[in-house]
C-alpha cells in the first residue's frame, strides 16, 4: 500500500478531530451546569456522550468489499490514529454469525456485520447485547447462477450456496424463494431448492467444478462467480428494495462496551467517517487500496474486471438505512432463521450524529427503533 493515500486519509482525520475538539470545548461551559441537574436514572447505554476510553478495542470485519470502510481505514492507520492510546486489534470473519459468536464469547467488542446477524444477536440476548451505532454499505449482493437458469422456476431441484446459515444473504435467499413459491429446509428435509451455507472461497471452487448451481453472495464474491466462473445474474438484491436502498453492512458494538467506553466508540466512528469521506473523494484509489488489503487477508487480489464490477455495485454510507431493518427481520422470521422480535432499542446513533453534526452533516434516522425509546 502506498503512503500517499494513507497521508491523505490521516490529514482528513486530523481535520475531523480538530472539529470535534472545537465542538467539545464550545460545549464545556454549558455541560458543567447541565451535569448538576442531569437525571441520575438515565440509562447510560441509551444516550452516551464522549467520555471514558478503553485500553483496547477489538474490532471484527470481513475481507469483502462491502466492508471497505474497515479494509481501508484499518490498514492505512486511520482507525488506530483516531483511537489514540487505545490499542486496536482486529479479527477477520467469513460471515456474520461467526462474528456474533465471537462478540458473545467476549473475543471482540465491535464488528462490521450484516443486518440479519445483528437482529439475531439482539433477539437472542433479549435486546441487551448489542447496539447498531452506524451504517457502512448499501448494495452489493446478488443471486448468480449457471447457464440454463433464467427464472425462479428453473431453480427447482438446484443447489444454491450462501455464506453461512442465518447470515444476511442466506436469509434473503430463503425469503425470496418463499415469495416465489419454492420450499427450502433448514434441516435437509423436503425442499424444492437445497441451500448449502459454506465459505465463499469454497463456493467459488464448487461452482467452477459444477457441484453448485448458483449462490446469493456479497461482493466481491458475486462478481468473482460471474467473471471468473461464468455465472450470470438472476437477481440483483437492490431490485427488491425501494429506490434500491438497503443496508448490507453496519457497525455493531457490545452494549456493555458502549456504555463503559463511549469515548472510544466515538473515536471509532470518527475514524469511520474520515475513511468514508476519503473513499467518496478518491473512489479509484479507495478501490485499489481495498484490493490490496483483500490480497493481504486472503492471499490473492481481485482481477481488475472483478474489482471494477464489484465496486460499482456498492454505496458507502454511514446511514444505517434503518427503514430496511424491520423488513430484514420479517424475512428472517419467514425463513425460520430467527424468532419474531421487537427491534425497539437496537439502534443507538447518538455518537454518530454527534460526529456528523461536528462536521456540518445532516443527522441520520433510527426509524423509531432507537435505544432512547426503549
From TrEMBL:
Keyword Ubl conjugation recorded: no
Keyword terms of this UniProt record: Cell inner membrane, Cell membrane, Membrane, Signal, Transport
Signal peptide feature range: 1-32
A molecular-function term among this protein's GO annotations: ATPase-coupled transmembrane transporter activity
GO cellular component: periplasmic space; plasma membrane
Recorded family membership: Belongs to the bacterial solute-binding protein SsuA/TauA family.
Protein name: ABC transporter substrate-binding protein
Organism encoding this protein: Cellulomonas humilata
Lineage: Bacteria, Bacillati, Actinomycetota, Actinomycetes, Micrococcales
Amino acid at each position: 500500500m502506498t503512503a500517499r493515500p494513507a497521508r491523505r486519509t490521516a490529514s482528513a482525520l486530523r481535520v475531523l478531530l480538530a472539529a470535534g475538539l472545537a465542538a467539545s470545548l464550545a460545549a464545556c461551559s454549558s455541560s458543567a451546569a447541565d451535569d448538576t441537574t442531569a437525571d441520575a436514572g438515565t440509562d447510560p447505554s441509551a444516550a452516551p456522550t464522549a467520555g471514558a476510553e478503553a485500553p483496547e478495542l477489538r474490532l471484527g470485519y470481513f475481507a469483502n468489499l462491502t466492508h471497505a470502510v474497515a479494509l481501508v481505514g484499518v490498514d492505512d492507520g486511520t482507525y488506530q490514529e483516531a483511537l489514540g492510546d487505545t490499542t486496536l486489534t482486529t479479527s477477520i470473519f467469513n460471515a456474520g454469525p461467526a462474528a456474533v459468536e465471537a462478540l458473545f464469547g467476549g473475543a471482540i467488542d465491535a464488528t462490521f456485520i450484516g443486518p440479519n446477524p445483528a437482529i439475531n444477536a439482539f433477539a437472542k440476548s433479549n435486546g441487551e447485547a448489542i447496539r447498531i451505532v452506524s451504517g457502512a454499505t448499501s448494495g452489493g449482493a446478488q443471486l448468480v447462477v449457471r447457464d440454463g437458469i433464467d427464472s425462479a422456476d428453473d431453480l427447482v431441484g438446484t443447489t444454491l450456496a450462501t455464506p453461512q446459515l442465518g447470515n444476511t444473504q442466506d436469509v434473503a435467499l430463503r425469503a425470496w424463494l418463499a415469495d416465489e413459491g419454492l420450499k427450502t429446509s433448514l434441516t435437509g428435509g423436503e425442499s424444492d431448492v437445497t441451500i448449502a451455507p459454506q465459505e465463499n472461497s469454497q463456493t467459488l471452487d464448487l461452482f467452477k467444478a459444477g457441484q453448485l448451481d448458483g449462490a446469493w453472495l456479497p461482493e466481491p464474491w458475486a462478481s468473482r462467480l460471474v467473471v471468473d466462473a461464468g455465472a450470470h445474474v438472476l437477481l440483483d438484491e437492490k431490485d427488491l428494495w425501494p429506490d434500491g436502498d438497503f443496508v448490507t453492512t453496519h457497525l455493531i458494538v457490545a452494549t456493555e462496551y458502549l456504555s463503559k467506553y463511549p469515548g472510544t466508540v466515538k473515536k471509532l466512528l470518527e475514524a469511520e467517517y474520515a475513511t468514508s469521506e476519503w473513499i467518496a473523494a478518491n473512489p479509484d484509489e479507495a478501490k485499489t487500496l481495498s484490493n490490496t488489503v483483500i490480497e493481504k487477508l486472503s492471499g490473492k487480489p481481485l482481477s481488475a474486471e472483478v474489482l471494477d464490477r464489484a465496486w460499482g455495485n456498492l454505496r458507502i454510507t454511514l446511514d444505517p438505512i434503518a427503514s430496511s431493518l424491520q423488513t430484514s427481520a420479517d424475512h428472517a422470521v419467514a425463513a425460520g432463521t430467527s424468532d419474531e422480535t421487537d427491534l425497539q432499542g437496537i439502534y443507538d446513533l447518538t455518537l454518530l450524529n454527534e460526529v456528523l453534526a461536528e462536521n456540518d452533516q445532516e443527522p441520520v434516522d433510527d426509524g423509531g427503533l432507537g435505544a432512547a425509546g426503549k
